[in-house]
Specification:
- The chain is of the alpha/beta class and 106 residues long.
- The protein contains four helices and five strands; from the N terminus they run βαβαβαββα.
- A hairpin with a 2-residue loop joins strand 4 and strand 5.
- It is globular, with a radius of gyration of 12 Å.
- The two termini are 21 Å apart.
Length: 106
């Protein structure tokens, strides 16, 4: 299962209005750590299917959402549930660390 790339215009429908918890990865093409995080999130999206949805948003192509959530450095992951922010994590973490973080929040 591949992670869905979303845009500013889809953010509300895909994240805020979602009935499931959603992890949003704010990233950019030029960001080395973001490229490291990508495969980890791909793997987790399969492992955690049904528990949490993982979406990615490119901050260069979609400047509105990162501004709305005060994103200052990437990669930043924000965990949403019922339209509200549960928690956020900045930087690259290992697979187990991210999985434990998600499990402790949702």
């Amino acid at each position: 299962m591949s992670i869905k790339q979303i845009s500013d215009s889809e953010f509300k429908a895909e994240v805020i209005d979602s009935s499931k918890p959603v992890l949003v990865d704010f990233w950019a093409e030029w960001c080395g750590p973001c490229k490291t995080l990508g495969p980890i999130l791909e793997k987790l999206s399969s492992e955690l299917e049904g528990q949490v949805e993982i979406k990615k948003i490119n901050i260069d192509e979609n400047p509105e959402s990162p501004t709305n959530f005060g994103i200052r450095s990437i990669p930043t992951m924000i965990l949403f549930k019922d339209g509200k922010i549960l928690d956020s994590k900045i930087g690259v973490s290992g697979e187990e660390d991210i999985k434990n973080w998600i499990s402790s929040k949702v």
